[in-house]
Design goal:
Strand content: 15-25%
Shape: elongated
Number of helices: 15
Strand order of the largest sheet: 9-6-8-7-10
Bound molecules: zinc ion
Oligomer: single chain
Largest sheet: 5 strands, antiparallel
Length: 414
Amino acid sequence: MKQDYTTNESKTQNVTSLSKSDKTVKVVTQNNIVVRGSEIGQISPLDNIGKLGTFYETIIRRFSLQSHSRELLPHFGVSGCLRLRIDKNNPVEVYKAIKFNNAAYGNLQTCKSVWVCPVCASKITERRRIELSQGVKNWQGRILLLTLTLQHKSNESLETIVTALTKGYSKTFVKGENYTKIMRDFGIVGNIRTLEITYGDNGFHPHLHILLFSERNQIDYKTLHKRLYEKWEHSLQSIGRYTNQKAFDLQFSNEAIASYVTKWGEIDSNNNWDISHEMAKSPVKVARNGGYTPFALLESSMLGNEIHGKLFQEYAKYMKRKQQLRYSEGLKELLGLLEKSDEEICNEKIEQAYLFMVLSREQWKQILGNDIRGELLQQVANGDIETVVTFLMRFGIDWDIEQFGYYNEGENLT
Ligand SMILES: [Zn+2]
């Protein structure tokens, strides 16, 4: 039989001190276990995991990779991401989603790095992809996909190549009368530019993908191709660089655009990280163009490839302040999208969740020491308090139900 919490004032006091975000608090007794409940707020389904087994493998791997990124980059934000608490006076919180098998941490700092943190990157790029595909769906005219890169030598540093590429694009290609005229002639009113890096036989291979939004429904594709190619060729020549047909691509079919948008920023795609592929089985993860993506380099480094570790460090150092995706001014409005920063995206809560448990500083230290942050989320998402406590005990972590109680689903929601 369950009892209402109002019969137990002192326990209610205890619970309210655990989380500042509580709105209501109830304590009920169920099978002789003290169960405490409250409506806590929301988490994002993307904070976490998902419903299928493979997703759990993915999140566990992301946490392991994040730990490895931390080893390679001790002075970067990723080293404290989902490790350090925001409020040192409060415990680490673990939330469980109400409708789906999801779980997430609360009161922990996040680094918001799309370049070096596999956990933050997956969350940010996932949201950006949803936004991107909504924008594409909303657009009434034509969309074209332009891919730009340049010829480079295998011994050139990433910094040298990216500098040349961005200079060729931002300072030259999109400047001047000629570019404005091309845009006007083809009704192109905005663009979305993304920067991607892969590593292959020719060293680092940075490239730009640019979605061009035209108000026209009919476009003389051949002429547009010719004029953009010439413009890119001249832009590179003016900075002492060269292109060729391989370093320039213009796609215009709906299928090509849809495929690009669906795969954009995916760090677990089949061509990149194969989510059905067990970690540690194969260090070879290839990008769409046959090279390694940065997170594939990280994974390979984790599996023992020191050269790939050094390359990841070089990449991290240089990409730190670069922007991954940029909408041209006014385009978001034209596409009916809201302006959102990466920080806002990271903090967005879209799924109802309740506080499942809290972890003391000491317990959290043990969880970090055993590198089981992902595994714990999996246990919380799929199990009840008893299976979670049993799981923690396997690592010698004591978690006293009587001491902390937990927030019970259903009892507590308004
Ligand atoms: Zn992070």
